[in-house]
Specification:
It is found in: Cytoplasm. Helices cover 42% and strands 19% of the residues. The protein is of the alpha/beta class. Helix 1 links the parallel strand 1 and strand 2.
Length: 311
């Protein structure tokens, strides 16, 4: 079982204090994990705007923020974590990613910060930038009063002929196993499949029986791929709940996650690496705008963020 030994907790967002501490402590386990609490301050306005030197205002705000972080750090230390606090200045998502790169953390966590008055839109612009570009596993936490997670869902995209997609599916499954074990939560596995071009085939002169046979064969193959992926990653199907659906992934993944009241959805976010400006797949991007639960976004091996450590 993988251990989570180092966590970066970016404390900019909306959260219930005790629920957040409980979730971080649960993920850290009992192995004496290290946690860094980070808060990012925006650059201060000019003296003409606030009547005080920007450097002095920055010093005062930094001292205030450090005290807030130390207060939370003391509670995490009661759960056995070794905690460091940091305050930086700049663009929030860039500073969080820079710290993630420098610290090489196992996991980055952050409370969600919705910038919309629409309740269904959970993630703000900083959250979305992190989900797209943070190279570390990125967990954006939905505001909640619950101190324990009950259901964790992993969305698995399978294509054995694509080595990168298969490796990413394995990572998603492994993270699901780890988090469910640490949080003592139910693990749900979701796989959505469809026959490419089915609508076109049915609209042509192709015999209906022929298309039906193709659909059945495609279903058989995807079920086999799912069985193999779970077996390969040591997941016993009798210990998880399988959700196996035919349809469009970007519609069904958020529908099933919301309908089952999942507390956390774990999914891979990138279909390809090495393409400038392409940091998240269309399906993942659509899902992130529809879910009403926390998200743990997993990047493929070899993912390179456009954010650089040096400013």
């Amino acid at each position: 079982m993988k251990q989570i030994k180092s966590i970066l907790l970016a404390l900019d967002g909306k959260y219930h204090r005790q629920a957040l501490i409980a979730q971080v402590a649960a993920v850290a386990g009992e192995g004496g994990a290290q946690a860094t609490l980070l808060s990012v301050l925006e650059s201060p306005p000019s003296k003409q705007e606030v009547g005080i030197e920007p450097s002095e205002l920055q010093r005062l705000m930094t001292e205030d923020r450090v005290e807030q972080l130390k207060d939370i750090a003391s509670e995490l230390e009661k759960h056995g974590l070794q905690v460091t606090v940091k305050v930086s200045q700049g663009k929030a998502f860039m500073e969080i990613i820079r710290e993630a790169l420098k610290g090489n953390y196992d996991l980055v966590m952050k409370p969600a910060e919705s910038e919309s008055t629409t309740r269904s839109i959970l993630f703000g612009s900083t959250d979305m930038q992190l989900l797209r570009m943070c190279p570390s596993p990125m967990w954006v936490i939905k505001p909640t009063h619950h101190t324990q997670m009950g259901k964790i869902m992993i969305a698995v995209d399978l294509l054995p002929f694509d080595e990168e997609k298969s490796a990413l599916a394995d990572k998603v499954i492994q993270w699901g196993k780890v988090i469910a074990h640490l949080a003592n939560a139910e693990l749900h596995v979701l796989h959505v499949w469809e026959l490419y071009g089915e609508t076109t085939l049915r609209g042509r002169t192709v015999l209906a029986d022929t298309v039906d046979n193709l659909v059945r064969e495609e279903e058989r193959r995807h079920r086999q791929w799912l069985d193999e992926a779970l077996s390969r990653n040591g997941v016993e199907q009798k210990q998880v709940q399988i959700h196996f659906y035919k349809g469009e992934a970007k519609k069904l993944i958020p529908t099933v996650a919301n309908r089952t009241d999942s507390d956390l959805l774990i999914m891979g976010t990138v279909g390809r690496t090495g393409i400038p400006g392409f940091f998240i797949g269309n399906t993942a991007d659509s899902v992130l705008h529809q879910v009403d639960c926390s998200i743990l976004a997993i990047k493929p091996d070899g993912f390179v963020t456009p954010v650089k450590v040096d400013r």
